[in-house]
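Entry 14. Ran structure prediction on the chain below.
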Amino acid sequence: MNMKWLGACKTKHTFIAEDKHLLTDAKAEKQYGFKMKQTLAAAAETGGSLYQGLSFYFTPNVKPEPIHMSEIVHACGGQVAEDVFQLESMDKENVIVIGCPEDATTVQDLKNQGFNLHSNEFILTGVLRQQVDLNSFKM
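Output, structure tokens:
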């Protein structure tokens, strides 16, 4: 919600409908290719299950830090492998590894093992767009 919503709630002494007070950022919407109103509607429709059925592994130097990325994934219904050894027992088709250039050796090793490797934007932009696009942000 934007700040006008807070003022309107204060004036009415109750919470009011949010739909007329959505936060907008035309520059960010253009830059990242999303519409906030559509994103919120899609998230409400799926009930926070964007990443349901997917597991993620984060290489150590990913930014935002893996602990924060894990929170995003869990909020979207996904699972997180805490260490690389957990990946051995997982179906590679349902595992997304999020890596970064600082972890090039690990990224290459996991790529050689057949895992799907993407940059952090796979999650960050995916949440903004409310879509899982396995062809975007590949490493």
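The longest helix spans residues 36-46. Will compare against last week's run tomorrow.
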